[in-house]
Design brief:
It is built from 12 helices and 19 strands. The chain is α/β, with parallel strands linked by helices and 444 residues long. The protein folds into 3 domains: 3-130, 3-Layer(aba) Sandwich (Rossmann fold), CATH 3.40.50.12160; 138-378, tm_1862 like domain (pyruvate-formate lyase- activating enzyme); 383-437, OB fold (Dihydrolipoamide Acetyltransferase, E2P). The strands form 5 sheets. It has a 6-stranded parallel sheet, with helices on both faces. Strands 15-16-17-19-18 form a 5-stranded mixed β-barrel. The chain has a 3-stranded parallel sheet with strand order 7-10-11, with helices on both faces. Helix 4 (114-122) links the parallel strand 5 (104-106) and strand 6 (128-130). The longest helix is centred in the last third of the chain and has 26 residues, at 354-379. The two termini are 36 Å apart.
Length: 444
């Protein structure tokens, strides 16, 4: 009889990829996906440490799952409860101490050993804690990836050596590691053979990728674009320091590479950028944008911003608004600074009052939302190839994703689900577009 596995995923695309691979690792043990934790024989909470109050949210979630586990136990059913991801990596011992009902705590570099951990946990030998960074790369021990639908994530790089003063990633994900080109091509070919038409390359610092023979991300993109049947390529998340000539040229030359880039800048103030240890100035960022748009005139940009970083003055914040106005973003993510224990910024002088952060965040988001609406409106009348991925709430409605990552709604027959269609944009909304079918089929 098949066992049921439920994975709750928080955070970035890397965590989504990791959750999928954990499911792949556990499949040979007979675990199949469950839609809810209530009837699952194993539950994994894949955590993210980036957002504010991440630990508290994890323990709150574990409290709810404890009740489910106890109810199942009373009915004679066992539930293996595991905590994975970056909170597990950073606070594994505390999780084991505060939540002794948790069976397994594992870091993001150890999930290839999950079958062994499950065996130890189900033998009743006590909780399993696996947060040491292994010597061997986990990718060498993972099974062939599964695929669901036309889009897929593919991790090509992990870890970060940049050590931004606000960020926990170097401590939870470790130093930078790039997978060999041959392994990436093999995984991509496998995904395409299973029906995937668009792949997003993932990494904490994905454009810092360097293959075993010195290949950069630009070279890797060119090699992947040669795979027959691969319709589109994306990559995220990037660092401005690693936007080299080769990668910019790939945006010009490789039609499969989508004309959309998420390139975090965090602040428009050189003083704050230096305090963040971003290792670039605002002018460097603007020059990169200029070169990207020269290479690919239809390029659209997304970014990340932190407001209220320690020591940020009104003038520093105004510099951020000025940069936003100069670039013109299609999308962006903006957050109030919140201290992460163990990071240099958490002990910096000049912590900004919460009310000031709130005011600045509201002003920044108002500007970013105006730019996003303007970009969406400019898309009306244009035709794009759209990956139709799921059904909408209304009968006959399908939802897809444009080259620029907008949600696109269209009235279309169900048989067009999981296909790439040429659609004409007819309406613009705050975060989405309405479309209609054109007579031209893009890709079945």
């Amino acid at each position: 009889m098949a066992k049921k596995l439920f994975i709750r995923t928080y955070g970035c695309q890397m965590n989504v990829y990791d959750s999928s691979r954990m499911a792949d690792v556990l499949a040979p043990l007979g675990y199949e996906p469950a839609e809810a934790p209530d009837h699952a024989d194993m539950v994994i909470v894949n955590t993210c440490h980036i957002r504010e109050h991440a630990s508290e949210k994890t323990f709150s979630e574990l409290g709810r799952l404890r009740q489910i586990k106890e109810e199942r136990q009373a009915a004679g059913q066992q539930t293996v409860l595991a905590v994975a991801g970056c909170v597990a990596q950073a606070e594994g011992a505390e999780i084991m101490a505060r939540a002794p009902f948790v069976d397994i705590v594992l870091g993001p570099q150890t999930y290839h050993r999950l079958p062994e951990m499950v065996a130890r946990a189900t033998r009743g030998s006590g909780g399993v804690l696996e947060t040491e960074f292994p010597v061997e790369p986990k990718f060498d021990h993972l099974p062939e990836p599964s695929a669901h639908g036309l889009t897929a994530f593919l991790s090509v790089q992990e870890g970060c050596d940049k050590f931004c003063t606000f960020c926990v990633v170097p401590y939870t994900r470790g130093s930078e590691y790039s997978r060999p080109v041959s392994a990436i091509l093999k995984e991509a070919e496998s995904l395409v053979a299973k029906g995937v038409r668009e792949i997003t390359l993932l990494g904490q610092n994905v454009n810092g990728y360097h293959g075993d023979k010195g290949e950069g991300l630009g070279q890797l993109v060119r090699l992947l674009a040669k795979i027959p049947g691969l319709h589109g390529l994306r990559y995220t998340t990037s660092h401005p320091r690693d936007m080299d000539d080769e990668l910019i040229a790939a945006h010009r030359d490789v039609p499969q590479l989508m004309p959309f880039l998420h390139l975090p800048v965090q602040s428009g103030s050189d003083r704050i950028l230096a305090a963040m240890n971003r290792q670039h100035a605002a002018s460097d960022y603007l020059k990169i944008i200029e070169r990207l748009r020269a290479a690919r005139p239809d390029m659209a940009l997304s970014s990340d911003f932190i407001v209220g970083f320690p020591g940020e003055s009104d003038e520093d914040f105004q510099a951020t608004l000025t940069l936003v106005e100069q670039v013109g973003f299609a999308q962006a993510y903006s957050f109030k600074y919140s201290p992460r224990p163990g990071t240099p910024a958490s002990t910096m002088a000049g912590q900004v009052p919460e009310a000031v952060k709130e005011e600045r965040l509201a002003a920044l988001q108002d500007l970013l939302q105006t730019q996003s609406r303007r970009f969406n409106q400019a898309c009306v009348g244009k035709s794009f190839d759209v990956v139709l991925e799921r059904r909408g709430r209304h009968p006959g409605q399908l939802i897809g994703r444009s080259p620029y990552m907008q949600s696109v709604y269209v009235s279309a027959p169900d048989e067009m689900l999981n296909s790439v269609q040429r659609l004409t944009m007819v309406t613009a909304h705050g975060n989405s577009l309405g479309a209609e079918l054109t007579s031209e089929l893009a890709c079945a």
